[in-house]
Amino acid sequence: MRPDPSDIAARRMRNARPWSSSSAQPLKPGHGKKVMLAILVLIMITSLIFVIQNRDDIGQHVNRPISKVKMDKQWQQVTEQEIAQMITGYMGVGFFNFDVIGVKETLEQHAWIREASIKRIWPDSLLLRITEQVAIALWDEDKLLNQYGEIIQPANARELNGLPILSGPIDSQIEVMEQFQLMSQLLFSSGLRLSGLTLSRRGSWYLTLNDSMQVAVGREQVIERLQRFIEFYEAQPAAQTAEFSSVDLRYNNGIAVENSHEELAEVAVR
Q1: How do residues 160-206 score in pLDDT, each as one tens digit?
Q2: Closest by alpha carbon to 87, among 99, 64, 103, 111?
Q3: Are residues 145 and 258 located together in one domain of the fold?
């Protein structure tokens, strides 16, 4: 019996392998990575060649000279013109070559500048922030004390009005400043303003009240003597205390007062 041709064809189709072309086969592992790496290398080489050929133009663009200065201008004693004069010698230098430390040191040499902060802003700008000194008192007539008790000596120290005048031996400014703060608090309730304080070389304290009244306190029992004077002052009529020109508290049980229109002193005994 001859086999049915249709059965033979069906068997051949079942046993046949699926057809595939080489183009439909998946890429071998790692082949895609090699292609990407080759592309990246080509890009890098091309970029390097471009940079080498145009290095001067690129350098001038990236490292362009600083030509703009931004400043905080909320200053009381330092002027913009002074700042410009101090930093003009540093200008015109490339961004990455700019001497930030040199500018900082130059600015902080100014008597009124306590701290200077300098920041470069690409591509061609400079940001300056300046902290000014805060003067709280005149020291020895031609110097100033800041809030930390440090001595500063600007050229216009004598021109500042309204500051208390403090003085004392070398390196005594902290002690004098602390005593000034304590005495000011004690005198506040009586309406007396401490406008000057002096510590002598022998350790005696002398006060100037309301810009005109001179008070000698001495070396011993300073706070007790001052409190005794405050009690005495508050007990007197305002018309009488207005005439006080000098007061001596260097008595164990009394106060010597001299009026502005009298030559002799009065002694008030407690």
Answers
A1: 989 999 999 999 999 999 999 999 999 999 999 999 999 999 999 99
A2: 103
A3: yes
Domain shared by 212 and 148, yes or no = yes
Residue 257 scores a pLDDT above 90: yes
Of residues 233, 217, 235, the one with CA closest to residue 180: 217
| Cα 83 to Cα 189: distance, rounded to the nearest angstrom | 44
Show the beta-strand stretches assigned E in the chain: 68-71, 113-121, 125-132, 135-139, 143-146, 151-152, 165-167, 194-199, 205-209, 213-218, 244-248, 254-259, 266-269
CA distance 206 to 167: 10
Q: What is the CATH number of the domain that holds 101?
A: 3.10.20.310
Report helix angle 31-53 to 55-62, nearest 10. 80
Q: What is the CATH number of the domain that holds 169?
A: 3.40.50.11690
Of residues 193, 267, 265, the one with CA closest to residue 230? 193
pTM for the full predicted model: 0.71
- Count CB atoms within 10 A of the CB of residue 267: 12
Q: Which two tokens stand for residue 142?
A: 């031609």
Task: Give the residue numbers spanning the domain of 156.
Answer: 135-269
Give the DSSP letter of residue 260.
Answer: T
Residues whose CB falls within 8 Å of the CB of residue 129, separated by 6 or more in sequence, listed in order? 72, 116, 117, 119
DSSP structure string for 127-147: EEEEEE--EEEEETTTEEEET
